[in-house]
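User: What would this chain look like folded?
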Amino acid sequence: MGKEGISRAVIKRLPRYYRYLGELMEAGQERISSGDLSKLMNVTASQIRQDLNNFGGFGQQGYGYNVEYLYNEIGKLLGIDRRHNIIVVGSGHLGQAIANYANFERRGFIVKGMFDKNPEIIGKEIRGIKIMSMEELGDFIKSNRIEIAALTLPKQQAEEIADSLVKYGIKGIWNFAHIDLKLPKDIVVENVHLSESLMRLSYNLTTVEK
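Assistant: Here's the prediction, encoded as structure tokens.
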């Protein structure tokens, strides 16, 4: 099955598989059955087998999965077997928190630059990365082969800046702005609406309390 035929639910579970397999590798475990993996992840064994069969299966009946092999293969599916250069556009508290999160580098996501229009923080360094002015954005993207932009701007600015990012050659936007961006279909957008996530948590708490 081609990647275009894979459901979003399956794709959403791939990073969880990758994380749990990484933890198993660190613990020295060499192989695992779908049944044992299901107990760890709270996903049924049949669902695990169905998910992985979308990409070829990776397991052997009676043996299970080789942990390191499956970890590496899922890493390839997720594209984290190669390096991705990222910029952060909007370098307030959230943007700085993203740049400070060193674990991204372990996954191949390298923050190369940070940008903002606030003169009070332009020139400041976060983990050795200098915050630059928005006027430098286009040249920096082109000269550093940037693929991904983390957009942490207020919604009033986000749409205009997103359009500019696309013109400069950005292919993927990690959107933290509270707005659904209208961009060309070949631009990949991953929306992270923090308030919506918090409201889902609140709803589930209310349901439990009842």
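The two ends are 43 Å apart (CA to CA). If you want, I can go into more detail on any region.
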